[in-house]
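A reminder from the course coordinator: this example appears on the midterm review sheet, so study it carefully.

Given structure:
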């Protein structure tokens, strides 16, 4: 294991959270009447260590990588799409690029390795590990060195976010075949069967879903002897999922709140918590994906997402859509008058 993974996560500031909760009780509203918006403000206050938290400065990092298991025919789209989407991200045409502009958020796109390599693209950071991970039906998806490099790519992204004064970090994913990879990893981490977690992904029909589940079953049988979270990530994960895992661990260690996106990123969060259970308080779950396995992963993390809009795109799009909720929670918490300030009688 890389030494930095052994470092403990930062402990949220419970005294600040209590102070924020006390402030909520003085605002001109019945206690609890703003529901989860109140809880969000208090949670962020404890994570950021300030009674009046902020979600103004948001950094979105999208990690892209290809997967060897795509050779098994598990996706409705050709593998070339991963590299093509890197140009789309950088050119501003992808959903997450539009959302980032609307939010005034910083968008970082990281190429960890694509079969259809677009080369140097302005606006895309090259941290290429290999053209793709290996086919996990034939052997481990990654070598130890590749896994370390992917984990470190995520940690480096978080370091940059902290240097930029980021309030909230969002991780996103792009990679043809990555719902297969995420489903396989989740099955191993949760001791679950493929038919409980593997769904349609990019739009497979019923026959394609069955094929995908059979591919995952073969992979699970091949790697049945693997019994640690790190080895499960190495054998069944992918570069972008490992990078997200590293980012979430590093964010918890450095004290940076994370807004988790959908199925792929939630599986990375599951892996991060398996590696470092004390990372869990730093993860805020944005939405419930339509992908079959997401509900099971959320339940395992005891997570209640903020939104359910039937999204299943990835790219961090669902998390981006939830940012205004965080901002409204912070604005209400900071700017509402107290009963004393407004001269309003308390209950």
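Designed residues:
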């Amino acid at each position: 294991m890389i030494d930095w993974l052994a470092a403990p996560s930062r402990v949220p500031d419970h005294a600040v959270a209590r102070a924020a909760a006390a402030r909520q009780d003085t605002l001109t509203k019945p206690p609890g009447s703003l529901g989860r918006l109140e809880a969000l403000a208090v949670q962020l206050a404890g994570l950021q260590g300030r009674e009046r938290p902020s979600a103004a400065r948001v950094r979105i990092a999208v990690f892209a990588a290809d997967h060897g298991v795509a050779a098994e025919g598990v996706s409705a789209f050709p593998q070339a799409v991963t590299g093509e989407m890197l140009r789309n991200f950088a050119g501003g045409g992808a959903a997450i690029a539009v959302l980032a502009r609307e939010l005034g958020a910083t968008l970082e796109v990281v190429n960890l390795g694509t079969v259809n390599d677009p080369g140097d693209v302005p606006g895309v950071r090259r941290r290429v590990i290999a053209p793709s991970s290996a086919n996990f039906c034939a052997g481990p998806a990654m070598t130890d060195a590749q896994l370390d490099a992917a984990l470190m790519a995520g940690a480096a992204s978080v370091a940059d976010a902290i240097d930029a004064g980021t309030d909230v970090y969002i991780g996103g994913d792009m990679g043809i075949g990555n719902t297969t990879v995420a489903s396989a990893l989740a099955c191993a981490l949760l001791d679950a069967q493929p038919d409980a977690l593997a769904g349609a992904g990019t739009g497979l029909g019923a026959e394609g879903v069955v094929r995908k589940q059979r591919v995952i079953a073969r992979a699970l049988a091949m790697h049945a002897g693997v019994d640690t979270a790190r080895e499960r990530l190495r054998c069944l994960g992918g570069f972008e999922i490992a990078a997200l895992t590293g980012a979430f661990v590093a964010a918890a260690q450095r004290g940076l709140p994370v807004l988790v996106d959908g199925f792929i990123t939630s599986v990375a969060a599951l892996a991060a918590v398996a590696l470092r259970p004390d990372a869990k308080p730093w993860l805020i779950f944005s939405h419930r994906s339509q992908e079959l396995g997401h509900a099971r992963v959320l339940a395992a993390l005891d997570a209640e997402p903020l939104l359910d809009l039937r999204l299943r795109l990835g790219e961090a799009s669902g998390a981006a859509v939830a940012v205004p909720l965080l901002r409204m929670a912070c604005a209400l918490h900071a700017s509402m008058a107290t009963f004393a300030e407004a001269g309003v009688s308390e209950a």
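The longest strand covers residues 58-64. The chain has a mean pLDDT of 95.
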